[in-house]
Each structure stands twice: as structure tokens, then as C-alpha cells.
């Protein structure tokens, strides 16, 4: 009889990791699935984050930050022990105080904890509308648009049960994609509530237990049938997609309250001209959602979740479940990297609000000092200027000015120093004119208008 192969214990794996020494002479590379963001890419980040923040603030959301490290139990209880995020992807470790900690894999649980811990239910301004921008960590299989450290923009509304809240957060996401010129579509469904869902789940299990259907399921879905049957509906395996075609749809099993709520959400969206697709198979991967669930898909995505741009829903029971007062809530998370990928793919032009339109050039030590002071004065007066004071050669400075596509270059040389003048060069025509230094701001204002 063959021996069962030994699997390594956690301790053995830890020992191995400790003993694995990097080659002393070699650079230590970054970890798999974790990226650097270099200056060239930051232009995209600025665009996305600035747009998102100004949009979200316009609707009255306030920024909140939560810690990267939280107690593991926070995610086990909220996200759910059976979810992929918690059971497979979360980075956890026991710290030196013997505390089980996790790198946050999701933003909502921390925001819920913060809402409860700071007694936000008694804030004068209700509902409480928060937004959050930060890093999340999931040990997923890295691929394009899927990293182990990534960024999300999240927003949450605490304390509003009405359909208007669901519709408004969907509208904000929809508007954000529009403003960034990303073609996105809203996929929406309702997954009911603890009153109506159990009956539906029973029907779903009955359907999937039929032998011909069950035989089509992938090994993961066979497990889901026992642990998390709703998730059978959003499996991306082709055979599971085929198997679900005749599955009962939750929309036909909603209680009256859930149906009313869903109809109202859709009516608001119609009124606001938000284009959406009813997707009976959209369930989202987490335990805490009820009623409305939605995702933002890029126009070219077929199966959705794999490359969804964002998603969210209502979670009316989570705050109470996490130890707070009963508080209806809803929210979404949108991935920054995926938005940036879309902007790059489509070559959407970037407009940099800080793009300089003046370059200050200098020739020689004395004029360099004056030019440095002049540059400071330009900054104080609110002009957008650029320079490279480590270069003394005029040709090299003009080349840089050209690269930066500035409108004017202001040149201070020995002669200008002596005469109290400055040369203004129009970069497009190449024309240069001498001006009294005292009148330079007047002339700039005229030419930059
Ligand atoms: P989720 O929190 O899983 O609902 O994801 C919400 C959004 O976050 C997704 O639609 C993606 O835009 C983004 N996202 C999720 N996981 C990753 C990942 N591993 N890498 C990059 N972006 C991700």
C-alpha cells in the first residue's frame, strides 16, 4: 500500500520561509502580484482620485480612514468565514502580542467597526455618508487587473433604509465612470432578505441537486452547494454557467417589501437615466448583502466579476451583527487599478491641472540666483512655472521647455541682469522680446490669458 504523501504543517512552512535567505549579492525583488507605482503612472492616479473625490464630496460624503491592520475576527464575522476572501485570500498572522491580525482585504468591515466604535449613530447629521480611499490585500492569483495589493475607492451610507440611498450611490458610480470616459454598465439584482431568501435557497438547492444538473458542476460549486448555494449562480466555469440557465430566479421569490424596494430603486434609476441591466445571476461573493446588489462592468466584459470595475449593495443587518444598533446601510467599492487600466486601454487624454506654461531659464551664476528668486515669486503669485537650475546650457534648458510644452520661456542672462530686463520667448513662434523686468508680471498676464 502506498504511503499518503506528507503535507507540510504551518510551523514547517514558517521554518522554511525563515531559512530561505535571499542571495546576498542580488537585488531583493518585490513580492509577486504587488506593484510599484512609478511617476509616469501617477498621472493616471491623480486624474482618477481627484475626479472621484470631487464627485463623491459633491454628494456630501466625508472622508474616513481605517487601519490597514485589524483583528482577524472582524473579517471572519462580517465578510464571512466561508467566503474566498476570508478562507483563501486574506493575509493573516499572529503578532508578537499573540494577537491574530489581518491585512485588510475589504473596506466595509473596518468602516462598520469605526461607525459603531465612534458612536456615529448619534451624530447630528444623518444618514452618515462616508468615503474611503486605500489599499486592500488579497492573496489572489496575479493577472492583468488582479493584484495582491490594490486600491479601492469606497463609499457607504449608514442609517438610510430607503431606495433613494441605493439609487444615489449607483448614480455616483455611474457618473464617475462617465466623467472619466470609461464605458461602464450597471448590472443589478436583488437577493432578498432573511424572510424571503431561505425559501428561495431551498428551491435553488433542489434544482442543483437534480443529478443531470449536479453532474455539470465544477468541483468548487459542488462544495458551494453545501456551504454557500447562492454562489453557484455567479461561477464563471462554462459548465456551471450552462447549469444555471434553468435555475429558479430570486426575483420571482422576493417578499412584498423586498420587491417594492427593488422596484423603487429601478424607478429612481430610470428617472435619472442610469442605464442598467437586470442580472438574475448577480449575487456578489459576500455574506452580508441583502436586497439590492450591483456591479459596474466595463462595456466589453462578458462574464463580469472577473474584471468588474466595482460593486456593492445593501447590508441592512451587518451593523447590528457586528455589535452596533440596527442600522440599514449600503455602499460600493470601485477598484482604482481597473479604472486606470481602462483609461490606458482607451488612450483617454490626460489633462494635468498643474501643467506648467512658463519655463525659467538662466545663464551664469549671478543670473541663476536671481532666476531662483524670480521662480519663487512666480510660485507665490500662483503662476505654473518649471525650471532646471542645475543646467547652465541654454540649449538644454530650451529643449526641456519644449518637452514640457510651455507657452513661454523667460530668460535671464548676464546682459539682462545688468540692464534690469528679461527676455520672453514665445515657444511656438520662436520670437524673443526684451522687457523691463519690473513689467514682467503684467506681460505674462497679457500673454497667458
Ligand atoms: P470586491 O471588493 O471584490 O467587490 O471588488 C470591488 C472592486 O475592487 C472590483 O470590481 C475591482 O475593481 C477591485 N478589485 C477587487 N479585487 C482586486 C484585485 N485583486 N486587484 C485589483 N483590483 C481588484
TrEMBL record:
Keyword Ligase: yes
Subunit structure: Homodimer.
GO-annotated cellular components: cytoplasm
Name the record gives this protein: Histidine--tRNA ligase
Subcellular location: Cytoplasm
Species in which this protein is naturally found: Candidatus Falkowbacteria bacterium CG10_big_fil_rev_8_21_14_0_10_43_11
Residues of the Aminoacyl-transfer RNA synthetases class-II family profile domain: 32-356
BP terms from Gene Ontology: histidyl-tRNA aminoacylation
Gene that produces this protein: hisS
Family, per entry: Belongs to the class-II aminoacyl-tRNA synthetase family.
Positions with a binding annotation for L-histidine: 106-108, 138, 152, 156, 284, 288-289
Pfam family for this entry, one: HGTP_anticodon
Catalytic activity: tRNA(His) + L-histidine + ATP = L-histidyl-tRNA(His) + AMP + diphosphate + H(+)
Amino acid at each position: 500500500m502506498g504511503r499518503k504523501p506528507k503535507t507540510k504543517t504551518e510551523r514547517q512552512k514558517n521554518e522554511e520561509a525563515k531559512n530561505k535567505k535571499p542571495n546576498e549579492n542580488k537585488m531583493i525583488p518585490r513580492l509577486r502580484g504587488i506593484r510599484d507605482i512609478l511617476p509616469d503612472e501617477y498621472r493616471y492616479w491623480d486624474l482618477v482620485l481627484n475626479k472621484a473625490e470631487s464627485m463623491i464630496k459633491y454628494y456630501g460624503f466625508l472622508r474616513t480612514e481605517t487601519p490597514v491592520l485589524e483583528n482577524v475576527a472582524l473579517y471572519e464575522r462580517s465578510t464571512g468565514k466561508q467566503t474566498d476572501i476570508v478562507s483563501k485570500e486574506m493575509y493573516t498572522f499572529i503578532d508578537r502580542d499573540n494577537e491574530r491580525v489581518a491585512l485588510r482585504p475589504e473596506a466595509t468591515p473596518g468602516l462598520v467597526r469605526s461607525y459603531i466604535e465612534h458612536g456615529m449613530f448619534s451624530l447630528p447629521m444623518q444618514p452618515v455618508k462616508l468615503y474611503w480611499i486605500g489599499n486592500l490585500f488579497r492573496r489572489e492569483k496575479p493577472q492583468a487587473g488582479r493584484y495582491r495589493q490594490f486600491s479601492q475607492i469606497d463609499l457607504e451610507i449608514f442609517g438610510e433604509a430607503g431606495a433613494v440611498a441605493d439609487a444615489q450611490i449607483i448614480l455616483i458610480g455611474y457618473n464617475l465612470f462617465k466623467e472619466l470616459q470609461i464605458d461602464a454598465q450597471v448590472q443589478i439584482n436583488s437577493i432578498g432578505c432573511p424572510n424571503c431568501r431561505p425559501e428561495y435557497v431551498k428551491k435553488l438547492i433542489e434544482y442543483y441537486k437534480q443529478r443531470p444538473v449536479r453532474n455539470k458542476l465544477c468541483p468548487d460549486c459542488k462544495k458551494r452547494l453545501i456551504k454557500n448555494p447562492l454562489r453557484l449562480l455567479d461561477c464563471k466555469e462554462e459548465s456551471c454557467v450552462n447549469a444555471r440557465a434553468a435555475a429558479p430566479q430570486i426575483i420571482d421569490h422576493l417578499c412584498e417589501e423586498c420587491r417594492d424596494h427593488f422596484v423603487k430603486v429601478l424607478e429612481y434609476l430610470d428617472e435619472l437615466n442610469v442605464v442598467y441591466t437586470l442580472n438574475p445571476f448577480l449575487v456578489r461573493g459576500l455574506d452580508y448583502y441583502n436586497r439590492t446588489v450591483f456591479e459596474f462592468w466595463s462595456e466589453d466584459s462578458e462574464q463580469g466579476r472577473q474584471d468588474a470595475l466595482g460593486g456593492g449593495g445593501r447590508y441592512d443587518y451587518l451593523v447590528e451583527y457586528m455589535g452596533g444598533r440596527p442600522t440599514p446601510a449600503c455602499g460600493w467599492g470601485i477598484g482604482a487599478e481597473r479604472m486606470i487600466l481602462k483609461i490606458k486601454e482607451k488612450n483617454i487624454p490626460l489633462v494635468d491641472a498643474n501643467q506648467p506654461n512658463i519655463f525659467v531659464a538662466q545663464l551664469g551664476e549671478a543670473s541663476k540666483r536671481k532666476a531662483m528668486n524670480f521662480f519663487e515669486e512666480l510660485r507665490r503669485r500662483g503662476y505654473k512655472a518649471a525650471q532646471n537650475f542645475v543646467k547652465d546650457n541654454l540649449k538644454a534648458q530650451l529643449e526641456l521647455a519644449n518637452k514640457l510644452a510651455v507657452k513661454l520661456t523667460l530668460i535671464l542672462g548676464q546682459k539682462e541682469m545688468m540692464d534690469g530686463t528679461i527676455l520672453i520667448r514665445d515657444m511656438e513662434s520662436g520670437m524673443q522680446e526684451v522687457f523691463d523686468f519690473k513689467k514682467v508680471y503684467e506681460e505674462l498676464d497679457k500673454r497667458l490669458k
